[in-house]
Structures are given as structure tokens and as C-alpha cells.
Task: structure prediction
Amino acid sequence: MDVTPLDSLLYFYYGGIAYIGLKQFRRAQDFFVLAISSPAQTLSSIVVEAHRKFILVSLLLDGTVTFNLILFFIIKLIINTKNRSLNYQNIQPE
Result:
């Protein structure tokens, strides 16, 4: 049985949910970071949900959201969007 990238993503997402249930919030936060930072070519709804849960867990733990992770998430989104629109960028007149 092969392990797919989706399997890995779901492992970290559901692992984070399980750690929330066990009230191990720091560990849950780590799992959500791993889900969010998984390499991908498109934005997944699982990653979006992991990011939402990361925000909630961060607020419970620290009372704030780590800015660096949000910046990383935005940069990742911009890079993915830019890579998907390279053909359109080449259309610009000279």
C-alpha cells in the first residue's frame, strides 16, 4: 500500500484534531503547522481547515497568532498562483 501526499496531509490534520481532544494544544499546533507547510501545487481545503484550527489553538495557547506562519502561508499562496499563471504573464506586449 502506497502512502500518498493526501495521506500525509490527513495524518497531520486529524492528528492535530486528536491532540486538541487530548488537550495537548502545543502538540496540536505542531501538527497543524506540518499540515499547512506540506508542499503542494494547489491550495487544499484541508490546508485551509488546518490553518483555521492553527489560529484557534494559537489563541488558546498564546493569546495571539504567530505572524511568521501567516506570512509563510501568504507567500506560498502567491508562489502557487504565480506558477499557475506563467503563460498569461508572457502575453504582455513589449
